[in-house]
Amino acid sequence: MTRVQWVIQTNIGPDDEKNRIIEAVKNTPNTRYVPIKIRPFTDELPDLHHSQEPTVVYGATGFINNVYKSGLWNPGVFFDEVNFNYVAWYMNYGPTLLNYEGVTIYSFEDFAHQDFDSSTLFFIRPVKDLKEFSGTVIEFGELQAWHKRLLGTELDPQTEIVVAPPQNIREEWRTFVVDGRVVTGSHYRTDGRLAVHPGLPVHVIAFVERLSKVWSPAPVFCMDVAEDEEGKLKVIEINCFNSSGLYASDALDIVSGINNYLLKK
Question: Quick one: residue 180, left, alpha or beta (phi over 0 = left, psi -120 to 50 = alpha)?
Answer without folding.
Answer: left
